[in-house]
Write a structure and sequence with these properties.
Elements (H helix, E strand, L loop, with lengths): L1 E6 L5 H14 L4 E5 L6 H5 L3 H6 L7 H8 L19 H4 L2 E3 L2 E5 L13 H15 L4 E5 L9 H4 L4 E6 L3 H17 L4 E8 L2 H10 L4 E7 L2 H9 L3 H4 L1 H16 L4 E2 L4
Parallel strand pairs: 1-5, 1-6, 2-4, 2-5, 6-7, 7-8
Antiparallel strand pairs: 3-4, 8-9
Helix pairs in contact: 1-12, 4-6
Bound molecules: adenosine-5'-diphosphate and magnesium ion.
Length: about 260
C-alpha cells in the first residue's frame, strides 16, 4: 500500500499521516513514513524521541551524498550529472526507526526558475520512484499542498492519494486545485478526508463544497490532538477518539470502499 497525503497547510496532513503509520505498524505491517514537507514535523507527530530526530539528516541537505551519487555538487544548474543515481541503500541508511516505523526526511529543494534541473532534485526524484515502485513496505508520504515529488511514472504507483480538508472554503479550494494537478499527472485513486470537524454542520459544509471526490471519513476537532503537540507526544497515544476515526478511514482504505461520493459543489 502506497499512500500519499496532501492538502492545504495546517489542515492536518501530518496528523493523519502519523495516525495511519501507527495503525499499520500496530497491525504488524512494516511502515516507511516519508516526510516530504520542506519544514518537517512528522517525527514529532509520530512521537519519535528528540534524540532520534536529531540524528536524521534530510536527504536534500546531504551535499556529499548528492555529489557522490549524481556526480555534481548540489546547487549546480545545468552541467552534467546523472539523472538516475543509485538510491536503493538510502532508505535504510538515512532513516530513523521507532515502534515499527521507519522515518525518512526528504528536505526542501530551493527551486530555481523553471522546474530546477539540479542534482538534488534528480536524487529526490529517483529516491521517490524507488520508494513507490520498489519497496515492499506500506509507504506513507506526508506531502506539501500539491504534487511535488511525484512524476508521471510514480503517480500511478500511488494506491491512495488523500486530500485532507477542514471545514472552510480555503482548504476546499486548495483541494480542487490539487485534484486537478493529480488528475493531470495520472494519479488513479483520489480520496477526500475531512479533519477538524466539530459537529454535523461541519460535515454538511464539507459535503456541499466537496470537489466531487469519494470521502474516506472524518476526524473530529479534538483538543487532545493539540495537547499531544504541546507535550511532544504521538497523536496516536494521546487522542483515542481520533485514533478510532482514523481506524475507520484505514478500514475503508483497505477495502477500497469510501463512505460516499459527494457531488461537486
Ligand atoms: N483533529 C484535530 N483536532 C484538533 N487539532 C488538530 C487536528 N488535526 C490537526 N490539528 C492541529 O492543527 C495543526 C496543523 O496540523 P498538521 O497535522 O501539522 O497539519 P499539516 O501537516 O497539514 O500542516 C496542528 O497544531 C495540529 O495539532
Ligand atoms: Mg505537515
Amino acid at each position: 500500500m502506497k499512500i500519499a497525503i496532501t492538502g492545504k497547510g495546517g489542515v492536518g496532513k501530518t496528523t493523519l499521516a502519523s495516525l495511519l503509520a501507527h495503525i499499520y505498524a500496530r497491525e504488524g505491517e512494516r511502515v516507511l513514513a516519508i516526510d516530504a514537507d520542506p519544514s518537517p514535523n512528522l517525527a514529532s507527530a509520530l512521537g519519535f524521541p528528540p534524540s532520534l530526530v536529531a540524528e536524521i539528516v534530510p536527504i536534500a541537505q546531504m551535499g556529499d551524498l548528492i555529489a557522490e551519487r549524481t556526480g555534481a555538487k548540489p546547487g549546480t544548474v545545468g552541467g552534467f550529472f546523472t539523472l538516475n543515481p543509485r538510491v536503493d541503500d538510502i532508505p535504510d541508511r538515512f532513516s530513523a526507526f521507532h515502534r515499527g516505523i521507519r522515518l525518512l526526511q526528504m528536505g526542501g529543494v530551493k527551486r530555481g526558475g523553471s522546474g530546477c534541473l539540479c542534482p538534488e532534485n534528480a536524487l529526490l526524484k529517483s529516491l521517490m520512484a524507488h520508494l513507490l515502485l520498489d519497496r515492499s513496505e506500506v509507504v506513507i508520504l506526508d506531502m506539501e499542498a500539491g504534487v511535488e515529488h511525484l512524476g508521471r511514472g510514480t503517480a500511478k504507483a500511488v494506491d491512495a492519494f488523500l486530500i485532507v480538508v477542514e471545514p472552510g472554503r480555503r482548504s476546499l479550494q486548495t483541494a480542487r486545485l490539487i485534484r486537478d494537478l493529480a488528475s493531470d499527472l495520472g494519479v488513479p485513486r483520489l480520496y477526500l478526508v475531512g479533519n477538524k470537524v466539530r459537529h454535523e454542520g461541519d460535515r454538511g459544509f464539507i459535503d456541499r463544497n466537496s470537489p466531487g471526490l469519494p470521502l474516506l471519513g472524518y476526524l473530529s476537532a479534538d483538543p487532545k490532538v493539540i495537547e499531544a503537540d504541546l507535550k511532544g507526544m504521538a497523536v496516536f497515544d494521546a487522542a483515542p477518539k481520533v485514533v478510532e476515526e482514523a481506524r475507520d478511514i484505514w478500514q475503508r482504505l483497505k477495502r477500497g470502499e469510501p463512505t460516499s461520493t459527494s457531488v461537486e459543489g
